[in-house]
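Per reviewer request, we include the raw input and output of the structure prediction for the construct analysed in the revised manuscript.
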Amino acid sequence: MRRAVPLFTAQGLEVTPAATDYQTPLQVGPLSGWVPTTERLSRATRALHEWMGYWVYQRLGYFDAGIASGN
């Protein structure tokens, strides 16, 4: 959503953000919150993907009007 809203806004559209992909842990195990698990690694990977995507889009100017539309 963080990347989508500026991209649609740069196209001149009015945006009402509504997140739909809520994810919750399947189970809370006996392990401490600091112990790595495959689920935590997967969540960290998705978070890094989104942060890097936002950074790249920002650096390439995709959030600026005109550039996103190809003009």
